[in-house]
Amino acid sequence: MGRTAPSTQANADTPLSRYNAKRNFKVTSEPAGVPAKRSGKSKALCFVIQKHWASRLHYDFRLELDGVMLSWAVPKGPSYDPALKQMAIHVEDHPISYNTFEGTIPKGQYGAGTVIIWDRGTWEPEGDPREGMAKGKLIFKLHGQKLAGLWELVRISKPGEVKQEQWLLLKKRGDAWARPTSEYDVISALPDSVVEKPLGPVEEREQRAGGTAAGTPGPSGEADLQLAVQAPLPAKLAPQLATLASAVPSGGSWIVETKFDGYRMLARVDGDDVRLFTRNGNDWTSKLKTVAAAVKDLGLDSAWLDGEIVVINQAGVPDFNRLQNAIDNSRSKDISFFVFDVPFLGGMDLRKVPVASRRQVLNELFEQRQSEVVRFSEAFDVPPAHMLEAACKMGLEGVMVKRADAPYVSSRTDTWLKLKCQQRQEFIVVGFTDRAGAPTEVGGLLLGYHEDGKLRYAGSVGTGWNSATGRELRSTLAKLQVEKPALEAGAVKPGRWSKRPAGVERWVKPTMVVEVAFSEWTPDGHVRHPTFRGVRTDKPATQITREKAERPEGPVTETAAAVAGKPRTSVKVTNPDRVIDPSTGFKKVDLVRYYESIADWMLPHLKDRPVSLVRAPEGITGEQFFQKHPETKMPGMTELDPALWPGHSSLLAVGSAEALVSAAQMNVVEFHTWNSTIKRINEPDRVIFDLDPGEGVSWAHLQEAAVLMHTLLTELGLEAWLKTSGGKGLHVVVPLAPKLDYDAVKGFSQAAVQHMAKTIPQRFVAKSGGSNRVGRIFIDYLRNGHGQTTASAFSARVRPGMGVSMPVSWEQLRELKSGSQWSIATAREYLSFQKSDPWAAYWTSKQTLTKAMRLLGYAPKKAA
């Protein structure tokens, strides 16, 4: 059907004759097969991997050699896990011009289906590739946008034994890029076309291996001290400060260290005289006698050491609150001094020496002298993005990255960058409120910062301390009370930060500095979801400004704040092989990988909406339960203000990929959302009609019901969008301008459903209950009530097969086969082949129900 005639035996021996014989180039847009002659000076051989959804999804793996593309069909695609041996079927050679082909191969043609370019780049054979092909063992390096490092193709069938030779595609063990699937799955992490979404070379983004920067230690490991000069030991030294970065650098050579949750400290050693100074030059030697003694025990004659003091808790993580409690008291022995730089040593000024070489000197120094109190701060030979992800999982503050060739400069520079797991900075306390029922404790701290010569209001923080700390804060701040706020005039309105009456705020002199972690800045310059981390005594209030992250020059990877919350690489899955759906064999790792890959599509549907979670700890066949409140903590999950729903515990919201994936790690299968957003919690911005088929209703009748519902809404002047439910039904969604309350919107939806049931009673019923809808469809309007939820777009469902709620166009309705047409195994793959979003216009549609209610004859009841 539609193919050219089989080639002659003579033609069969020519390059690409098998390829040409299988295709009718008058029908298919694939390029005709003509062997290519290499032109130009480049000797690099190209490779391409095309993702091909034909009768089933597979990956076409192609390597250029002798003017053609050697080709294998890899059903499951490549994996960085050396333990996985992926089947690869050797197929006919393809022309080099095929490397640019993306599109649809028509029905009736060989390989009919859709093709995208999943990865491409260059490859280097190890040894003679022709000899390797003949022997059935081809070893090579890939330099692509997704794949890198050393790979191997091994033939497992005997030549001529089968029609199509069977090979295995393997990741070589010991390769720097090798990773187990439980940590990273490139197929689910990066499912899309590199033509539509170019990534750039992965080796530039991650730099697993590479050369050293100028001036850094060479292969011998010896430090380059050519730029060191003799100089007297200065009496004072201002530290080099890092710039808060919004993105992880990828180009160049960078040193990656832990960002300690402590106080910056510099030690000056001049013979037996050891002094410890804060970043602002304050002498803290008397506060830190144990540390000073340990520095003296290093036996140095002359030095400046730069580092951070911390207290490590039982989990092995720096604890800022414990550090504060340890300073200047009997617990100071718990303090450790981690040293990461040495700007002066032994009568030599090392500040112009590259930081990589300074650290080499420091490392050699500490090999013989390290103690429990004074330690060398280790660097990690991993990409910054991976280190940041690991640091955030461990509960660390973040990471430091330093350009390997950077000198030591006593100012803030962009050669030292700090990447944080969450936003966090110092604020000035400008006032406080008392705790309700405990007037001797602080209830909230009112925050400020300097900007443009003015003290601006930054919101308030009311969590993060215990009763003892609350009393201590209250006692200290009471001594600083003043009549009027130090804030600029009109910065805040009395009572704005709390629901208490105006006049209960107590203003203070702006001298106390506290550190606060928070999720983001609001448009009006306030912190959102803040948590108190401690009082800072090493920084004066006059220096506190709003930190603004800068983007490093050159290529970057994902934003620093999003590395923990929006993973671009897979997270490690706990209990990955636990089967959660016996009907399909889906495992927990499949669910987590699905939510990881769907995050960019799903988060807009979850953004700023309260959610209910359906958890299935024993899998979908075991006990399940709803979670609406934060009784179980999940990393990244947002706890909303209890005032949003008086009389109830805090609601939850999913605002990041971190929250989405951590919920899946905690066995959440379904995500259900309210019909309103947090900002206007009592005024829904959509109305949903859930078409729920009763027993005996065919799929064709459900499709017809969706068309009829769409027709009614169109006649009422309302645009509607369609999605599968992931189960048996369909959802018809109407976006609204949030103006009416829940009772009015629910009343309208009930009136619409009653109209359908009255007009076509043989198809529709307006009453719930299984007995009422046998052979008919209940259009569920009850989901439009206050506090009611509906499965979100792209949510998986707790049903055999684990279907997914998929947004579709009305034109697709006729082609749909069921409400669970896509599952967690196929939904994201389906999306990678789509060129447009059928719901693109949904987000800008702001409709009112005024006309629709009038046409329907419905008038909402007015509140008494």
From TrEMBL:
- PROSITE patterns, per this entry? DNA_LIGASE_A3
On whether DNA damage is a keyword of this UniProt record, the answer is yes
Q: What spans are recorded as compositionally biased (Low complexity)? A: 209-223
Question: What processes in GO biological process is this protein linked to?
Answer: DNA recombination; DNA repair
Domain ATP-dependent DNA ligase family profile span(s) in chain numbering? 328-434
Q: Where is this region: Disordered?
A: 199-223
Q: Reaction catalysed?
A: ATP + (deoxyribonucleotide)n-3'-hydroxyl + 5'-phospho-(deoxyribonucleotide)m = (deoxyribonucleotide)n+m + AMP + diphosphate
From which domain of life does this come?
A: Bacteria
Cofactor(s) named in the record:
Mn(2+)
The record's Pfam families line, in alphabetical order, gives: DNA_ligase_A_C (PF04679), DNA_ligase_A_M (PF01068), LigD_N (PF13298), LigD_Prim-Pol (PF21686)
Could you tell me what this protein is called? DNA ligase (ATP)
The organism named in the record is Methylibium petroleiphilum (strain ATCC BAA-1232 / LMG 22953 / PM1)
